[in-house]
Amino acid sequence: AEQMRVDFIANASHELKTPLASLSGFIETLRGPAKEDEAAREDFLTIMEEQAARMKRLINDLLSLSRIELNEHVVPADIVDVDGVVKDVIDGIAPIAAQAGVAINFQAPDDLPNAIGARHELFQVFQNLIDNAIKYGRAGKKADVVLSLEQEPQDDGSTSPFICAVVRDYGPGIAREHVPRLTERFYRVDPDMSRREGGTGLGLAIVKHIINRHRGELEIESRVGEGTSIMVKVPAVSGGDSD
Ligand code: ADP
User: Fold this and answer.
1) Rounded to the nearest whole angstrom, what is the distance from the C-alpha of residue 131 to the centroid of ligand 1?
2) Is the CB of 204 inside a 6 Å radius of any atom of ligand 1?
3) What's the predicted TM-score (pTM) here?
4) Ligand 1 centroid from CA 83, angstroms
5) Which residue puts its alpha carbon closest to atom 5 of ligand 1?
6) Are strands 142-153 and 103-107 parallel, antiparallel or unpaired?
7) DSSP string spanning 172-229?
8) How many CB atoms lie under 10 A from the CB of residue 84?
9) What is the spatial distance between Cα 167 and Cα 90, in angstroms, rounded to a whole number?
10) 37 CB-near residues (< 8 Å, 6+ apart)
11) pLDDT, tens digit, for every residue of 74-97?
């Protein structure tokens, strides 16, 4: 655990250092050699803006992760309309999906019960998963988001209802050896590509911690050349009058 903590701090510092070095470099250039160069100034400011945005994303993700970890032992207990959450995420991400040429198909039964959890955290789960499906799966041109209700057997022989959500893309998929490590902080299959796409390497780690906090389940399935399918399950409100 201590080694992981040390690695984490080293990784986080390194991820922040790169854009920071770039910002410092451009500030120096703008003060010196490019002082009178109007065109260069515009270009440099655009790059600086991107680097600042990258630092902001990383800091936001680090803060999210630490907030979730801090509360991991407290099970969230609000009533959450998952169907509505997913629709909000899809609406918000629509411009990015359109730009990437990815059609998002959403399916959910009309009578899906509510989940028990924290709305903003579940929002983040779907935001990260759908964002990845667009970023990495864009070659497949479509992504599916499917919600269903499942009854999960419990240790005492009874069953409990769970909302099951699957986010599937038809992109290049992920080689088998990487799959078990994807939820590690800063683990990326292709770090350059992730950075180019604005990734922090923390998205799936955040998803895993949120799902743990909900006492849910997370499963990643992927086949090279076929695509990736990520399933999450979170507890649902028991329907009707059975108990
Ligand atoms: P990132 O910010 O890099 O996207 P994530 O934690 O969300 O970080 O994902 C970790 C890595 O898992 C990504 O860098 C990418 O290599 C891989 N990955 C995640 N989702 C997919 C997907 N749908 N298809 C292919 N690769 C994926």
Assistant:
1) 9
2) yes
3) 0.94
4) 24
5) 203
6) parallel
7) S---TTTGGGTTSTT--SSHHHHHHTT--S-HHHHHHHHHHHTT-EEEEEEETTTEEE
8) 12
9) 12
10) none
11) 999 999 999 999 999 999 999 999
CA of 132 to the centre of ligand 1 (A): 6
Q: Does residue 141 carry a pLDDT above 50? A: yes
Q: How many CB atoms lie within 10 A of CB 217?
A: 15
Q: What is the pLDDT of residues 174-189, one digit of tens each?
A: 999 999 999 999 999 9
**Atom from ligand 1 closest to the CA of residue 199:** 2
Q: Is the CB of 227 under 6 A from ligand 1?
A: no
For the chain, the C-alpha Rg in angstroms (whole number) is 21
Cross-strand partners of 103: 142
Q: Quick one: CA dihedral 53, 14, 100, 179, positive or negative?
A: negative
Asked if 168 and 228 touch (Cβ cutoff 8 Å), the reply is: yes
Could you tell me how far CA 160 lies from the centroid of its own chain? 27
Residue with tokens 């509510």: 114
Q: Is 228 in the pocket of ligand 1 (CB under 6 A)?
A: yes
Please report which residue ranges of the chain form alpha helices under DSSP H: 2-31, 38-70, 82-100, 119-137, 191-196, 203-213
